[in-house]
Design a protein that fits this description.
134 residues, alpha+beta, four-stranded antiparallel sheet, three-stranded antiparallel sheet, 3 helices, disordered C terminus
């Protein structure tokens, strides 16, 4: 199970937690806004992280992936990307304005887009879970 919540006194920053085998494990503990986590059966976790350029409400949200103890940034644009979902094949989709999806399509290789499911996100502005294999 993964979820976001506050850790400590920082009221502007939620953190990401993993609950596994009876243990609560904080994956983040910093002054960065984190939220909308999802996990698949392999334990790969995706979420939105406030590490983009400054927008009207602070840094924009970008999609990150936690896999095998390593954090990888999947998006890098000037709008908020949020609500990522990952299925058991490792396909990832998220909500984002369509022009940001276009920018990310150019950034990622074809094999990365197939692997991460960005091609599914290319076809819509919100979640495309109906496009993903079960």
């Amino acid at each position: 199970i993964v979820f976001s919540g506050r850790l400590g006194a920082n009221e502007h920053s939620d953190e990401i937690f993993l609950y596994e085998d009876g243990e609560l494990i904080p994956l983040t503990d910093d002054a960065v806004r984190d939220g909308f986590p999802d996990i698949n059966d392999d334990g790969t976790i995706v979420w939105s992280r406030g590490i983009g350029p400054d927008g009207p409400y602070g840094p924009t949200l970008e999609i990150v992936m936690w896999q095998d103890g390593e954090l990888t940034r999947l998006t890098d644009d000037d709008v908020s990307d949020y609500g990522p979902e990952i299925n058991n094949l490792g396909h990832i989709v998220w909500s984002s304005p369509s022009y940001a999806v276009q920018k990310n399509r150019e950034r990622f290789s074809e094999s990365q887009r197939r692997s991460w499911g960005v091609s599914a996100a290319d076809r819509c502005e919100t979640r495309c879970s109906e496009d993903l294999p079960p």
